[in-house]
Amino acid sequence: MKYITNNYLETVACGQKLGKLLQPQDLILLDGDLGAGKTTLTQGIARGLDITRPVKSPTFTLIREYQTGRIPLYHMDMYRLENSSADELGLNEYFNGDGVVIIEWSQFIAEQLPSTYLRIKITRQTALQRQLEFQALGQHYQHLLNSLFQDFDKK
Ligand code: ADP
Ligand code: MG
């Protein structure tokens, strides 16, 4: 399923709608080139989780935790994983934990990922336009995706 955003704010709004639907242990994978909008979408998701703290890219820290929202958010960026091994990160504790997990550049930990998740691939169409392509693996995420697209239709 695909969705087009025409500016930064539309991507934030899309993330916010998704964030409102999320539950503990939900896993969102964000793929796309540098500057595609992965962190921007995460800012919207955080908003949807009632997190007011600004969301910054975890490129150098690998994981940033936000504990002040409706449920915790664990925002990860695996782009610089070369420096530490995925085992050291204790990923399974996050996947089986109390919050939502968002992973940018998840292809770098492909072998460590659970079998079900919502994957969003963001592609830059023009300077301001992005295509968001949603792929839901597993029934839970298919339901989630259906709810999200119902929200899009409501406008
Ligand atoms: P990533 O995390 O994928 O590297 P960022 O979210 O950090 O990307 O950066 C996306 C950049 O693209 C920001 O500078 C943002 O202002 C810009 N941008 C322009 N149009 C859009 C859009 N429709 N959606 C998201 N970001 C956009
Ligand atoms: Mg980013």
TrEMBL record:
Gene3D superfamilies assigned to the protein according to its UniProt record, in alphabetical order: P-loop containing nucleotide triphosphate hydrolases
Keywords linked to the UniProt accession: ATP-binding, Cytoplasm, Magnesium, Metal-binding, Nucleotide-binding, Transferase, tRNA processing
GO BP term, example: tRNA threonylcarbamoyladenosine modification
Superkingdom of the organism of origin: Bacteria
First-listed, main subcellular location of the protein, grouped into a coarse class: cytoplasm
Keyword Secreted: no
Compartments (UniProt record): Cytoplasm
Pfam family of the protein (one): TsaE
GO cellular component labels: cytoplasm
MF (Gene Ontology): ATP binding; metal ion binding; transferase activity
InterPro entries for this protein: P-loop_NTPase, T6A_TsaE
Family: Belongs to the TsaE family.
PANTHER family xrefs: TRNA THREONYLCARBAMOYLADENOSINE BIOSYNTHESIS PROTEIN TSAE
Name of the protein: tRNA threonylcarbamoyladenosine biosynthesis protein TsaE
Annotated organism of origin: Bombilactobacillus bombi
